[in-house]
Specification:
- The structure is a single chain.
- The protein is mainly α and 57 residues long.
- The chain is 91% helix and 0% strand.
- The protein is built from 2 helices and no strands.
- The chain is elongated, with a radius of gyration of 13 Å.
- It starts with a helix and ends with a helix.
Length: 57
Amino acid sequence: MSRDEKAKAKAEQAKGKAKEALGRMVGNERRTAEGRIDQAKGDARQAKEKAKDVLKD
């Protein structure tokens, strides 16, 4: 996995976790859902890069 893409995936996952936690803390369901979406995007990006690595080898 390229370092740049791996970093983007991790950053997106962390952003999502923070957003979700903030949403729960203030009781904002929309922000909580947005956080989950951001985490899912990060997970998808990471899975895509891992699949690319497997296919390379």
